[in-house]
Amino acid sequence: MSLSAPATPRLPSAASLSSWLPSRRSLLWVLLAFMAGLVLFALVLSLGRNRDAGRDVGSLPTTASPDYAPLPAPMPAAGADSASRVAKPPGSDTTGGDEQPRLVETAPPVAPPTLPHPAPAPVAVATTRPEPLPGQTPSPRYPTQSLRRGESGTVNVRVEIGADGVPAQVSVEGSSGSRYLDRAAVDAVRRWRFRPAMSNGQPASGSVIVPIRFDAQR
Fold first, then answer.
1. The pTM is what?
2. N or C: which end of the chain has fewer CB within 10 A?
């Protein structure tokens, strides 16, 4: 029986190694691709930081933002002692529980005295009526227009006479139907003089109605 020596392992040769190793051109392309990836990653990272910074700046409060007043402090919670915490008016603290309420009597308000009103002055009432003075009642002039037209009639003239007997106001109380006759009657009575009315023995103002008759047939 013959024994054979174990076979020794065979190392790859340099030619075989060079067959599967990449070439220099391939290594150059791989290196360029790796560098391009680094540049692209750095660019994406810088863009993301700029966006985050813009968002932070937009969210910062500005000086033009409105001011808000702080809310008032909350009231203490209602509980067993809440009634005792409420402020009480001075003098309402009743420390003595046995003290009985006292009745305070107040005097009724006194009305101010009323002064008597002065009595109105008595109004002078005429006891007599004014009367025309004889010889001081000139007759009215007959209007020429009324004579031509043959107008006739009676004019009732109202006369307001003062205490001196002089007419203060003269007006037509009842017309004759002719303005010429009414005007002539008023002008004539204005020149009249009267005995004034008397009141308590003193001259007073009064009024009287004087009829003036015009007749074109006379």
1. 0.42
2. N
